[in-house]
Amino acid sequence: MLPKYHQKLGHEVSVIASLVSFDKNGKPCTLPKANTYFSTDGYKVIRLNYRRCWKKINSFIRRYENLSESLKTENPDILFIHDYSFADIIQVMRYAKRNNIQVFIDCHTDYINSAKSWISKHIFHHVVWRFIGRKILPYVSMFYGVTPLRCDFLRNAYKIPEAKVELLLMGVDDDLLQQKLNLGAGERLREKLCLSKEFVILTGGKIDMLKNIHLVLEAFRNIESFSKEVTLVVFGTIAPEAKEKINELLVHSKIKFVGWLSSDEILDYYIMSDLIVFPGTHSVLWEQAVGTGTPAIFKYWEGITHVDVGGNALFLKHDSVEEIESILTHVIDKEGVYEEMLKSAQQKGCTEFAYTNIAKKSLGCE
């Protein structure tokens, strides 16, 4: 999203990346060879292989062939670096220092998704990447954490000073969102799913036991009736270990399972829905949901409450069926609760989580 919107701001954009990509089903894959091409949004993409000598080691510590040559050819004025925890950050920052290039770095790492083993936490993050972070600090304009928790990680794990740490939200492709709204994507999807005027709850993503989708299914099945017609729509891929339990819970007249969806299709389902529920671990799906202006219910995680922009979201404090039952009936049945959430979601969520605005802030242009 950032390259797309940086290009829209009038910049000439090139992305230098590894061979790691995603296939048509959204699963990680490795491209067959180094290549240069242009994306559908018009920016250049330069794919680099890992250095061939000691390739297995280099793929782990991330050292690339022709990186210096690619930087020289592109001759950038600004570098936006996606996480700096790769070995070749040293040569990248030498190039930036030598050529007086403005550098911004984002961080997607925290103590929930990384630094789990003793070696990872105390050797790599608290020694290696902390040391490198302090060395490159004078030449970086800003380090961005993409959640408040990841801002804390920059400050605590890498000891980046407060003055050089800011929150940079992830969000939604607001151009695409507006196109879909103009074309009536939500109404068309409701017709396709035969949902007419029903209140639609959406949940899903990677369906394993950590995401707690099974708790939403159980809670929904336990509620005898709402004050209006309600349907629960579930999307995603079911993990093998959860398949038997999830398939049993999906058997219900008011539950629709639609399987795996592309990111483009997920946006259609967000637009179609009245309420979105993510009761487990965090993913970028949370920010995208807020950016569509849809009220939501999230699992509470300390440092990940930025998705509440002033009443659009409620949080689950416990992994329990009973709590989900209670909060669903509160939102849907108690007069005025949902309406207030919707007002906040549409007034603030669509603006704060739009990549048009996020892209400007990412380059210090807010």
UniProtKB/TrEMBL annotation:
It holds the Pfam family Glyco_transf_4. It comes from the Bacteria. This is Glycosyltransferase family 4 protein. Residues 191-341 form the Glycosyl transferase family domain. It comes from Sphingobacterium faecale. Residues 5-175 form the Glycosyltransferase subfamily 4-like N-terminal domain. InterPro entries: Glyco_trans_1, Glyco_trans_4-like_N, Glycosyltransferase_grp1. CDD domains: GT4_PimA-like.
